[in-house]
Amino acid sequence: MKRNELRNLGLTPEQIDAVMTMNGNDVNREKAKSAAQTGNEVQRLRESCVTLLDLLESPEAVRGVLRCVSRLYSEQERRKARKEYPGGVLKTTTPQNDPRGMLE
Predict the structure, then answer these.
(1) Which range of residues forms the domain containing residue 73?
(2) 50 shares a domain with 7
(3) How far apart are the first and last CA of the chain?
(4) Which residue ranges are recorded for the region named Disordered (predicted)?
(5) Whether residue 65 sits in one domain with residue 80
(6) How many C-beta atoms surround the C-beta of residue 67 within 10 A?
(7) Residue 6, Cβ neighbours under 10 Å: how many?
(8) How far apart are CA 21 and CA 10, in angstroms?
(9) Which pLDDT value is given to residue 65?
(10) 65 and 56 in contact (C-beta within 8 Å)?
(11) Which of 40, 68, 42, 39 is nearest to 55 (CA)?
């Protein structure tokens, strides 16, 4: 916000000062909130990295993490397939029935 813009709207210098003060307070409050959220997120990520590094110290732990990720990926793919092919029937897509128009 610029003082000239407020002046052009016909505000008095006192009104301009009041608006600028309120705007400055709003901006500073939002900056503080954002900094706190960012700090919390950075701390959470650091803790996650430490936990992950602890897990990856042994080959068994690495296999366990990979199994878990693989299982989650497979579950996601199954949900995606059920959504795309309700009833479990795979339909052949031809240019005549392609809903996305990709085969034309």
Answers:
(1) 58-104
(2) yes
(3) 52
(4) 76-104
(5) yes
(6) 10
(7) 19
(8) 18
(9) 80
(10) yes
(11) 68
The pLDDT confidence band at residue 7, using thresholds 50, 70 and 90, is very high
Token pair recorded at residue 1: 């916000």
What's the token pair of residue 11?
A: 């505000």
Measure the CA–CA gap between 26 and 1, rounded to whole angstroms.
Answer: 12
Instruction: Extract the tokens encoding 22.
Output: 């309120």
Amino acid (one-letter) located at 103: L
Identity of the residue numbered 21: T
Q: What is the 3-state secondary structure (H, E, C) of the chain?
A: CCHHHHHHCCCCHHHHHHHHHHHHHHHHHHHHHHHHHHHHHHHHHHHHHHHHHHHCCCHHHHHHHHHHHHHHHHHHHHHHHHHHCHHHCCCCCCCCCCCCCCCC
> Does 50 lie in the same domain as 6?
yes
